[in-house]
Each structure stands twice: as structure tokens, then as C-alpha cells.
Amino acid sequence: MAEQPVAGSEQATRFGDQNPQQIRSNNVKPLQNAKEAAIEGLKMETLALRDASAKLRADKEVVLEAVKMSGLSLHYASEDLRADKEVVLEAVTHFGRALCFASANLRADIDIVKKAVEVHGAALQFANEELQTDKEIVLKA
Predict the structure, then answer these.
(1) pTM for the full predicted model
(2) What would the pLDDT profile of 116-135 be if each residue is shown by its tens digit?
(3) Are 117 and 141 in contact (CB under 8 A)?
(4) Half-sphere exposure of 48 (CA within 13 A, CB side)
(5) For residue 59, what are the contacts with CB-CB under 8 A and spacing of at least 6?
(6) Which residues have a Cβ under 8 Å from the Cβ of 56 and sit 6 or more positions away?
(7) Segment 16-34, tens digit of pLDDT
(8) What is the DSSP secondary structure assignment for residue 108, as one 8-state letter?
(9) What are φ and ψ of residue 109, in 5° steps?
(10) Within the chain, how many helices (H) and strands (E) appear?
(11) Residues 97, 95, 89, 76: is their CA dihedral positive or negative?
């Protein structure tokens, strides 16, 4: 009797009892890599970055997609990307209060803070002390 895939296993679920040659001939194509899978997952679950591997949370392309879907995803990004101006600006554009997850340097960046308080005035509380008293920024809040 031929050995059958374990019910519920990935092999059984995706391929049934086909052998590898049958799979190739039926044009079953696995995902190219985890990065593509993560980006696709972000389109269905806005906080999917929360469950992503450290490698994906450090991938700028993946994190940019995540913060476009939800600025709150910045919370799950790597420390380096929370210090990346492009990533943080994208995040605060969609969720001003994401400023609280930005690096200290970017919480002191006037462009980032202006955008954050334009989107959500309460984001001012996450800016550095000097910018919290900046007249132009306070008026935007």
C-alpha cells in the first residue's frame, strides 16, 4: 500500500497524493518567497506585520506596505526602520499617533512631527519637548 500524506498536512492539503512530477506538470506554483507572501498577507490583514519574522519586520519594502495599510504597523517594524524617515513619514501620514513608535531622532524631526499633528493633533504629545512648544506645530495640532 502506498504511503499517503498525513491528513491536514501542507502536502496533503496542497497536493493530495500527487508525486512531484505530477505537480510540476499540473503547473502548481508555490509562492516565490516569504517576502511576497508577507506582502500579500498585508493586503488581507492590516496588522500582519505583528506576526511576521524579524527578517520581514526589517525589510523596508514589506514594512512600507504594512504602514500604508495601517500606520500602527510601525510598532512592529525593526528598530532600524522605526528610525527610517521614509517609513515613519508614511506611517504618520496614515496614523499620526504612530509618531510614538518612531525613533527619538525622528520624534524631533520637524517634517515628521508636522505631518503627524496634521493627521492627528494628539500626536503632539509624542514629539520631543522642543517641538511640543514650537508655535507653528502647536497651531497645526
Answers:
(1) 0.72
(2) 999 999 999 999 999 999 99
(3) yes
(4) 21
(5) 35, 38
(6) 34, 35, 38, 49, 62
(7) 444 444 434 343 344 346 6
(8) T
(9) -90, 120
(10) 10, 0
(11) positive
